[in-house]
Amino acid sequence: MAIPFFSLDLKKIDFLTIIRDIFFPWNKSKKVTKVISTLEKRYPNRKICLLPSGRLGLYLSLKYLFKKGDEIIFSSMSFPLYVKIAKQLELKVRLVDVSNKDLNIDVNKIEEQINRNTKGIVVTHLFGNPCDIYKIKNICERKNLKLIEDCAQSFNSKINDIETGNFGDVGIVSTSLLKIPTTLSGGILILKDQELHSKIINWVEMNISDNFILKFKLLIKILLSILNSYPAIYSILSDKIFIFLKSYNPRIYRKILYSGMGMKNDLYNPKERPALSKFQLTIGLSQLNRCEEMNKIRKEYSQLIQTNLEKNKNIIVVNDHFKDNYNHQYFVIFIKKNFREIYEKLFKSGIHVMDENVWDCTKYGFEIENNHENFTVTKNFDGKLLRIQNNSLLKKNQIEKICKKIVDASN
Ligand SMILES: Cc1ncc(COP(=O)(O)O)c(C=O)c1O
User: Which residues line ligand 1 (CB under 6 A)?
Assistant: First the structure.
């Protein structure tokens, strides 16, 4: 039986509420208030905005915080669509290489990229591992820069017991299908400034619709993702199709796999997704309530995986899952030698791990102000990172099977 790349951890009651809310979609605003008040406990002194995606949160933040020609710093390993959006808004982009220790922005290299046009920094808490945020905040305060935290992968990750998203002027969480917590597509914007919050709420009210066709398409995608979450169903429904495409049409296979990256069209369309439906808010609430429970299972599994894999000389576990500040949403390993071979072997043996080769922002042809630099750490890691499925829906014996197959493939 094949084990899919990702699984949505939903309970029976979630299925019932999805059906109920699809047929009785009224009173959505009550749900919005409930989700927002739950989130406000995590982000005190911040204003919250629920959106159809994290990317829309970045688009609107950049649009209202900066003006054309302003320079923004990103880490060279971050979400490429975010750099594309910055360029679309006619901002200038500088990249800073990542640190060897956690693949987050290298704090010691930030200041050399700051000049009088620099107006902001976007930091990504990559793979859920928090950045060196106090040092970054200090630089931002000294240089009068806006700080945006990309918390798409770091919900519930903490620094000195304070959750990521509480440090910057803006925090952006993704609640897409692949994230935890999920609203089955969506995003959370965490804002320090009341005025920015009002502007964004206004924009959303004027521009984001309840378009039936968009909602229907999303519903189909959600249903397929739910079904594909279960190894038994995935093995019947998708496994063979993926194996076929991978061998005979790798381009289409890649397109399907990375469709969420938003890189296929020339321009990002901020109106591409419909407003959140009531059932998405209900699922979001259920996920928020189960956050600690799911985190605990992921922690147990990730420690098991780490213990099994770190003995192997060809593997480096990227994050230390025995640390407590971490949400264990991503389990990523660095493979020193024979990456492709190992990846193919795993795929054939039914362990559909994810080739994390999308984060190097230097390779997409964006016009970057400091393009001439080497970004050595990014280049060294790119193409050798493998994401292992570590989801609370999976059973312990499935996690053990994944470990065994990885060790076998690496020997
Ligand atoms: C690091 C990172 N930033 C941003 C995003 C974008 O989030 P969304 O898909 O909700 O727009 C993602 C989604 O995969 C991500 O992994």
Answer: 53-55, 79, 124, 150, 152-153, 174, 176, 187, 260
